[in-house]
Design brief:
Layout: H1 3-15, E1 17-21, H2 31-41, E2 46-49, H3 58-66, E3 73-76, H4 86-100, E4 104-108, H5 113-119, H6 126-140, E5 145-149, E6 152-157, E7 170-174, H7 177-186, E8 189-192, H8 198-214, E9 223-232, H9 236-251, H10 256-263, H11 270-275, H12 293-299, H13 306-309, E10 313-315, H14 317-329, E11 334-338, H15 346-349
Parallel strand pairs: 1-2, 1-11, 2-3, 3-4, 4-7, 7-8, 8-9, 9-10, 9-11
Antiparallel strand pairs: 5-6
Length: about 350
């Protein structure tokens, strides 16, 4: 391969990559701006924001990032359809489209029932998700909405001043077969969870595309976004914090860890060993809200090594590229690089 072909291949791969800015817990969101600008400089296709209540409100961050970038898509990964009133969510989305010249991608999820119960909001169902998506799209088009059903009671909703911008694509975060089929039938894309193996991504992509076809949608109607935790060229302690610590924060959550293990065809009984670790024993919610990165890395010793090695990209740039290619060959349209912020990805992307 000649030098020009190598550059073309690298640019093509970069365009199919996105990356999270300010991942995890933060109290200062301002680094997101320089990280997003670096993502665009590297030629990435999308900058991703993980919303957390407190210092990572998606609407505020989107507005700021849209003004320090010019071409890169800006995506939520994820927010929720039921955490904002539908008119407020649609208003935020269309304002964002106008500010960015149509670069918003809205990723939404369902989270876990305990979280919604604790904040006094209804637990999403498949029907409420699809109805909420329909309400959102209609409002973004300037239509008047009258609705009473699983998504709520809305006698008369309408946005009076809608910008001349397209309705942003709605992507659904999904793991299990029902969620994947829902994405294939009703959404514009799917966001696959971190720590899925390439084989699990292939099975997930097949389910999504089969559901799309059964609904009479074209094969390319649904965008498959696979999330890959990535750490390259870092000191061992930093790599462990990004990969091992993050894996623990997902696998230790009761019910959620079992879902991930089953999707990967791994033995969920291993999770009992992880949860019995002294750093995790007795924790019922998310461990990363009460444990430091170093404590999570310590607990990761209880995980089988393959649960980390087979579902992340670590090592040299060439080793990471090989992993990326396996995920793309498995059917992913885009990879969301997680854990390492764009300012740490130059060697991998370039």
């Amino acid at each position: 391969m000649g030098m020009s072909e190598q550059k073309s291949s690298a640019a093509e791969r970069a365009g199919r990559l996105g990356a999270y800015v300010v991942p995890g817990r933060v109290t200062d969101p301002r680094p997101a701006l320089t990280q997003a600008a670096e993502a665009e400089r590297l030629g990435l296709g999308t900058v991703w924001l993980s919303e957390r209540w407190g210092a990572k409100d998606f609407g505020v961050l989107f507005g700021a990032i849209s003004q320090v970038t010019s071409d890169i898509d800006i995506a939520a990964g994820v927010t929720h359809l039921n955490s904002r009133h539908p008119a407020l969510l649609a208003s935020m989305a269309m304002t964002a489209q106008a500010l960015s010249d149509g670069r918003l991608v809205l990723g939404v999820g369902r989270s876990v029932a305990a979280m919604w119960q604790s904040v006094g909001l209804p637990v999403p169902t498949n029907r409420s998700l699809t109805d909420s998506a329909d309400i959102f799209r209609r409002l973004c088009r300037g239509e008047k909405v009258r609705y009473q059903g699983p998504a709520g009671n809305f006698p008369a909703l309408r946005l009076t001043d809608v910008p001349d911008q397209p309705v942003p694509p709605l992507l659904l975060a999904a793991i299990g077969p029902r969620g994947l089929e829902l994405a294939g039938r009703h959404f514009d894309g799917v966001i696959l969870h971190p720590f899925l193996t390439p084989e699990a991504v292939a099975r997930s992509a097949q389910l999504v595309r089969a559901a799309a076809a059964a609904a009479g949608r074209p094969a390319d109607a649904v965008r498959i976004c696979a999330t890959v935790v990535t750490a390259s060229g870092l000191a061992p302690a930093e790599e462990a914090a990004i990969v091992a610590g993050r894996a623990v924060s997902y696998y230790q959550i009761p019910g959620f860890g079992e879902q991930l293990a089953r999707v990967n065809d791994w033995d969920p009984d291993q999770l009992a060993v992880l949860r019995a670790h002294p750093q995790l024993a007795g924790i019922r919610g998310s461990a990363d809200s009460v444990r430091t990165a170093a404590q999570l890395v310590e607990a990761a010793a209880a995980l089988p090594a393959r649960w980390l090695n087979e579902a992340s990209a670590v090592g040299t740039a060439a080793q990471c590229h090989a992993v990326f290619d396996r995920y793309l060959d498995a059917g992913a349209d885009e990879l969301i690089l997680h854990g390492s912020t764009p300012d740490r990805l130059a060697s991998v992307v370039g």
